[in-house]
Specification:
This protein is 0% helix and 67% strand. By secondary structure, it is mainly beta. The protein starts with 7 loop residues before the first strand and ends with a strand.
Length: 106
């Protein structure tokens, strides 16, 4: 993977539950890492659901491992877009390149 291809700054978030001193729980997405990545659209489709038009895009995010484990429980923030991770592929199982297949619902 060439460094020049990793030209997009992304944020990796995890869903966390925090508890205050009174025991009240708060659920929120929190940033766990930032990384440079290549973000490429793979496909898109439109469909009808619940009597409304929906659009969905499949996006491939290629990056170096950021030092934390990335799973489909995480999500990617790319600019103003939110990408849900569908699968994480460790290319050639060498821990040098990750390909994340993501869905963006519009």
């Amino acid at each position: 993977m060439r460094t020049g291809a990793l030209r997009h700054k992304i944020e990796i978030q995890a869903f966390i539950i925090t508890e205050d001193e009174l025991g009240n729980q708060t659920e929120e997405w929190a940033k766990v890492a930032e990384a440079w990545a290549a973000v490429e659209p793979v496909s898109g489709k439109e469909y009808w659901a619940a009597a409304a038009a929906q659009a969905e895009a499949t996006i491939k995010v290629t990056m170096r491992p950021p030092g934390i484990e990335i799973t489909p429980a995480n999500r990617i923030i790319f600019g103003s877009r939110t990408l849900e991770i569908e699968s994480v592929i460790n290319v050639r199982e060498q821990n040098r390149e990750l390909q994340l297949m993501c869905k963006e619902k519009v």
